[in-house]
Amino acid sequence: MDVFGAYWYRHWLWAVMVSVGAYANFLDEGMAHARKGEMVQAAALWERSCTGGNTEGCYNLGVAYMRGEGVKPNVAKAAALFDRSCRAGGMKGCMNLGVLYEDGHGVPHDVPRARRLFDQACRSGQAIACYNLGTLYHTGKLGNVDRAQAIPYYTRACESGVAQACSDLGTLYDRADASGDYRKAKTYYTQACNAGHPAGCYNLGNLYYFGKGVTVDYGMARKVYKAGCSIGHAKACLNLGIIFAQGQGVEMSREKAQYYFGQSCHQGNAKGCAYQKRYDEKRYQGEKR
Questions:
Q1: Is residue 66 part of a domain?
Q2: Does residue 228 belong to any structural domain of this protein?
Q3: Residue range 139-161, pLDDT digits in tens
Q4: DSSP per-residue letters across the chain
Q5: 36, part of any domain
Q6: Domain count along the chain
Q7: pTM of the full structure
């Protein structure tokens, strides 16, 4: 089973809402320059927007400092801008500031403060903030691991379309003990996989492959492993190679096994590289004879 990734959604995204007022025009003009890759001009306009009190201008300028686009990278400045945006009601600013406090990046490491900021943004409808709040409980960063506390935040994020939250929610139910519920795990993995989340497909494939809460079904396992492999999950490629190597629910195929082991290796999986090498050596020896 994959380890869930609290940082998967740590993206610094531009604010694209269109506002009204003179300083909002600077925001919109900045976005027009950003779309053309003219980041120096965009950052200058967002600075004017922020100076005039536009929270989205402050937020976008903070993102520019995080990315080092149009300005020199400066995490401390980004944090100050996110804080300014947050204090003025910009919830994306609160969310990003929470990430910085959780990581101790540009600001002191302060997980309780990160929790408060995520909670504030989550209550205002920022689904990714709900997800990040769930990870604090899931990883035990607030003290002890608290899966029960993580569930409602992951659920809210999942229902709002955050595929990573659906996948991680599945891992909370994918357990053999009393707290496990393979039926729910399957539901959430399916949602994640259908939304294009690689680990969701991989973990769903494991349910079918090992018969956890369902009848062993190598055909379904192959289908969802293939989906996961196609969007970059190395272990899904590896398991797909094993299915073809062993002829599990499908005609045995050395060529397909070798192909998927190669895909797994290409995506950084050491076992995939080892299996691919083994097949390459056998093929070489066969050709030599």
A1: yes
A2: no
A3: 999 999 999 999 999 999 999 99
A4: -PPP-TTTT---PPP-----SHHHHHHHHHHHHHHTT-HHHHHHHHHHHHHTT-HHHHHHHHHHHHHTSSS---HHHHHHHHHHHHHTT-HHHHHHHHHHHHHTSSS---HHHHHHHHHHHHHTT-HHHHHHHHHHHHTTTTSS--HHHHHHHHHHHHHTT-HHHHHHHHHHH--SSTT--HHHHHHHHHHHHHTT-HHHHHHHHHHHHHTSSS---HHHHHHHHHHHHHTT-HHHHHHHHHHHHHTSSS---HHHHHHHHHHHHHTT-HHHHHHHHHHHHHHHHHHH-
A5: yes
A6: 1
A7: 0.84
